Amino acid sequence: MAAVSVSTRFLVLLQDFSAFRKISWRSAAANYHRQSRLLCHVAKEDGSLTLASLELGNNSPRRSGKSKAMKLEGSFVRAATNDRMKVVKEKKPAEIVSPLFSAKSFEELGLPDSLLDSLEREGFSVPTDVQSAAVPAIIKGHDAVIQSYTGSGKTLAYLLPILSEIGPLSGKAKSGEKRAEIQAMIVAPSRELGMQIVREVEKLLGPDHRRMVQQLVGGANRMRQEEALKKNKPAIVVGTPGRIAEISKSGRLHTHGCRFLVLDEVDELLSFNFREDIHRIIEHVGRRAGAGPKGEVDERANRQTILVSATVPFSVIRAAKSWSHEPVLVQANKVTPLDTVQPTAPAISLTPTTSEADGQIQTTIQSLPPALKHFYCISKHQHKVDALRRCVHALEAQSVIAFMNHSKQLKDVVYKLEARGMSCAELHGDLGKLGRSTVLKKFKNGEVRVLVTNELSARGLDVAECDLVVNLELPTDAVHYAHRAGRTGRLGRKGTVVTVCEESQVFIVKKMEKQLGLPFEYCEFVDGELVVTEEDKAIIR
Ligand SMILES: Nc1ncnc2c1ncn2[C@@H]1O[C@H](COP(=O)(O)OP(=O)(O)OP(=O)(O)O)[C@@H](O)[C@H]1O
Fold first, then answer.
1. Closest to 188 (Cα-Cα) out of 257, 251, 250, 274
2. Ligand 1 contacts CB of residue 310 (under 6 A)
3. pLDDT of residue 98
């Protein structure tokens, strides 16, 4: 009897998942959270049912011995033949398979009532792990480095404590009070990510207070942005480093009184391309010239600095130590003072053991959503687009991001796919702002099935429905692989990553596989299905 009721609950849970796209997916996520707690509770009662037993845990494919059958779990069903495994895909929408929601509620995080109302209105019912760890730490006034895997909700992890301190939802602004200068600045490496963050802030602020946030991204009309700054006096600005630095130099951006500075995708922002602009931002935001007792420049910034990324190399830790005051490291559900992190700490090797690269690789492992499956296949250069097309059909993927390294080749791929009747579009930096946002909109609403793009889309892009990422060309390293891969499997959903490489590149794939500590299954596309074979045989053939 108990078994029947447990499986009935499990079916209800699955039905909720299948209806995921039709109803609000956020309320489904909350439902999932509640029901997974219920299932855990049931498990404790009869001692037999666990999330893992329901295949809701980490579904990473595991490799068995060379001659033995390889086992794939989750949405892939195996059907053995003599020397190869046939993998038949079940038709299901992207499901949440990996629990990443916290045991705490938003109420327990110390957020003001109006912000809680906003969260409820927007359908955010339960915080994710990283949110429940980061929010109280930042509200307490800590500077923070937030590191958690792609799609785990890092944006709200820093937005919620900011909105609980400044602006209309904080409950701290007195009516009729003259609005001060900008109080929070959020910097992101691309226009798309900047705009995405603006939309997240606008959603929480609601229609009456949308003007409290202003975007300062490149590619848009600068004069108009400057006018909006003057007219609306926003409390929060979100922008790209170049445009922020440009307006700051013109004297039209008053950020000396800024209380929060966020660098989202901080490891990218520390790269050579952005160095000068970021330096200016760090030097000006939240620092009042002449604030010292003798009129000298204030030594310590009067702001909270929050650095965020799925990949945190040692250079970020060094930067955090020099820019911040007693910073903490927030990882998933854990908060550690940055200074106390030991070189040999198993969770994250922040202090390089043999080389700085080690520290980077350690964090890369934690940057990947646990529910992702990783495959690779071999193709001659001239047949890669065909491999992509067959891969999309075999997995019946509905929302696909295909990555290449150079924007010039994207058009060619788009032509070839279109010629075969597949709806696709290219997205790269050479397109104008309008062109880029139109393509993204079409991809998000399902008009475009395959988005062919370059590194521009590897970071931050949040399309919940994306169920497949294909590397048509190899990423430069494991960190880039992780960010590309993270465009699928968002917020604990299922996702598949297929890397199409040439035979001479297999050793690079193997190296990334080793660095990431994850199995990449060798696969082929046969009779409209994804087939996993033993790679040694395939390569020798
Ligand atoms: N508590 C929550 N409940 C439901 N949905 C959430 C919650 N928190 C965030 N989300 C949604 O999850 C998605 C992923 O969040 P977000 O983009 O912040 O992830 P991320 O960790 O910053 O990823 P990346 O590293 O790729 O930038 C977004 O669509 C966001 O609105």
1. 274
2. yes
3. 60
